[in-house]
Specification:
alpha+beta, single chain, 7 helices, 374 residues, L,D-transpeptidase catalytic domain-like, three-stranded mixed sheet, disordered N terminus, 24 strands
Length: 374
């Protein structure tokens, strides 16, 4: 009996010892897990080793440290220059000046978010062994704001060259005609230019050439239509089709004390058998009727072409054929009735009238130009 009790006590002791060992192992494991948990808690804001943002190693950095490191690297790209050319003109800007921005905060947050993809012990293992997780995070660059659009508009304004329509004009002293050939203009399509600049920023190129387009003139010598030219120095009226003179007639222009105004004017009205309204009832027209209806006795003859020159200036017929070719009017341009009737059919309202030259110094009333054969 005593021996049996001894055997039972011995077996109980072995079991107890095993239990103690097991308990010790469990306690050690639990302590290790707790230690690993506390270790990771203290490093919750520290990125795991082997995480890179746009090639920049940010492992074992805090969020603030990583932001500073990535921002420094991103600055190199944002400070790179882009040269924009249009022909022989150039504009140089940095990517940052053109509105490019780096999404640094979101990239660093993504790098820090790698922590959450691993368990506590895995994170702990990578840290204590300095073992890389080998994760690469992209850094996004985007162009925002209106800096590119503003630059495209500024460039367009600088390179714009207006088209020139064909026309007949005068020299500064109004003594000679100038035949202005049609010339195409140049403009920069603003929206297309802005898109090209943005693409160059995204691609990281150092230079971009913008495309201009040719803008043809709206009026050429062939399409400009008729122009009436009155030369006061010779008392001749010429009809041009484009730059070709197709007909000429003698006219009367202003006598001394009166002016047939030089300049480029427009025809605003044309009338057959016009009514004449006396413009000077108190002076030179005092002896004439206030109104003369259209007919043989009308001072404006059978046709009147009204132009927008100052002084109620008209090209009209006459009841005084001998005055044609002379300095005899109060400013209007007189023609023989038959000749103005022909001119009347050859020009439209809206046509240009160019008055050029000056009455010779010393010319008296009823004089003719020195070159005249009247």
């Amino acid at each position: 009996m005593a021996r049996g009790r001894h055997i039972r006590r011995k077996r109980f002791g072995v079991v107890a010892a095993l239990a103690v060992v097991a308990a010790s192992v469990l306690l050690a494991a639990g302590g290790g897990a707790y230690a690993a948990y506390r270790y990771e808690q203290d490093r919750a804001d520290v990125i795991l080793p082997g995480v890179r943002v746009a090639g920049i190693e940010v492992g074992e950095m805090t969020r603030r440290e990583a932001m500073r490191s990535v921002r420094s690297a991103a600055g190199e790209q944002l400070d790179r220059s882009l040269t924009i050319r249009v022909g022989d003109r150039a504009w140089k800007m940095t990517a940052a000046e053109l509105g490019e921005r780096a999404a640094i905060a979101s990239a660093v947050d993504e790098a820090l978010g790698v922590n959450a993809t691993l368990g506590t012990f895995d994170r702990f293992w990578h840290r204590v062994r300095d073992e890389s997780v080998a994760v690469e995070v992209d850094l996004a660059f985007r162009t925002r704001g209106d800096a590119v659009d503003q630059l495209a508009s500024e460039i367009a304004a600088e390179v714009f060259e207006p088209w020139v329509n064909a026309s007949i004009s005068l020299t500064d002293d109004d003594d000679r005609l100038v035949f202005n050939e049609a010339r195409a203009g140049t403009k920069l399509p603003v929206a297309e230019a802005a898109d090209t600049i943005r693409a160059a920023i995204d691609e990281g190129v150092a230079r971009v050439d913008l495309r201009t387009i040719r803008v043809p003139a709206k009026t050429t010598a062939r399409s400009m239509g008729p122009t009436v030219v009155v030369d006061v120095s010779t008392n001749r009226l010429h009809l041009f089709e484009g730059f070709d003179r197709v007909k000429s007639w003698d006219v009367a222009t202003a006598k001394p004390g009166w002016v047939t105004p030089t300049g480029v004017w427009n025809i605003w009205d044309m009338r057959e058998d016009p009514t004449w309204y006396n413009p000077a009832l108190d002076t030179w027209g005092a002896s004439l009727p206030a109104i003369v209806p259209g007919g043989p006795s009308n001072p404006m003859g059978t046709r009147a072409i009204y132009i927008d020159a100052p002084g109620l200036i008209r090209i009209h017929g006459t009841t005084s054929p001998p005055s044609i070719g002379r300095y005899a009017s109060h400013g209007c341009i007189r023609m023989h009735n038959g000749e103005i009737e022909r001119l009347f059919e050859m020009i439209p309202v809206g046509a240009k009238v160019v008055i050029v030259g000056h009455r010779p110094a010393g010319a008296a009333e009823w004089d003719t130009p020195a070159s005249s054969d009247i």
